[in-house]
Input
Amino acid sequence: MENFVFHNPTRIIFGKDSQQQVGRELKGYRKVLLHYGTGSIKRCGLYDQVVNSLQEAGIEWVELGGAKPNPLLSLVYEGIRLCRENGVELVLAVGGGSTIDSAKAIALGACYTGDVWDFYTEKAKPAAALPVGVILTIAAAGSESSDSSVLTREEGLLKRPCSSSLVFPKFAILNPELTYTLPSYQTACGIADICAHILERYFTRSPNVDLTDRLCEASLKTLIAFAPRVMAAPADYEARAEIMWTGAIAHNNLLGTGRTADWGSHMIEHEMSGIYDVAHGAGLAVVFPAWMKYVYREDIQRFVQYAVRVWGVDYSFGEPERIALEGIARTKEFFSSIGLPVSLKEMNISGDRLEEMAQKATKDGSLGNFKKLDQADVLNILKLAS
Output
């Protein structure tokens, strides 16, 4: 086990009707930026509940809607302008990972005299940020209790991450009821995103990490058990609750303690969704099994462990390689069973820009840690995913 420091300051408020507490959580702030997506929170009544809570608490707000999957830099610039012009003291994100990531970027940019994109290209390091609060509406990205944000710049179609302890949300309200009305495809994409966050940490070369191995395996098995239930019955509160809490645990850094994570598959998928604007979870459902098939021989025993502990493949199934490949096949089958694509072809992505994606993904160096991936490796993985 490697040395580590674990610190997660986000206050989690979990359960039914918890969104009603937002005004109480914002006590002490005079004006907030209310940031949300393309209107679903208004259609389902959540917007009115939030606004009423703000009014009762005597908190003023300005609004910025329009956050979309793969959040855009141009909208972040608009949010920064609103914060500066209106004396905003906190950014309140009501939505999923894209809204939260956009809110974090706004919070950073409002306190920076340069271009906020500098943080996403590592030209500068954040030194200050407005606080961020969250009301979560989809279990997926885990951004509600993480220190990370991902943003897309329209020019060049570049999707890049930024991590800073400054953007851990001050609080996150998690009510599984708020996910009942999600389309099944979005629910499935969220489940795949959560799986990927766990798998990025699980496939490590760090030795002697059995506790976090077991935590990762338990988290994956929870998703495998409850995904079919929630796909069949969208208003199954207990299934939604298990998945929502797993999503937060998957990306709050706990599962990565004492081990070096990989993140190669995420970086490859960022180029895919940056160019084609596909749902991040769907892209990961395509990329991850291909990555697994490309790298499993680097540590076949870890893939055997994964197949046996997570998917219940018996050691009597055959030689280690056969067991490892069966685990990969069952991963792919799981994604397919909940309605996700598992190939580029199923996403209507042709092969004419694979080299471009591989080049952009490795422009600043190799990807991943389980196996270092250069441009040729990334291209081979994309071909396996085709």
About this structure: Residues 210-232 form the longest helix (23 residues). The chain has a mean pLDDT of 97. The radius of gyration is 20 Å.
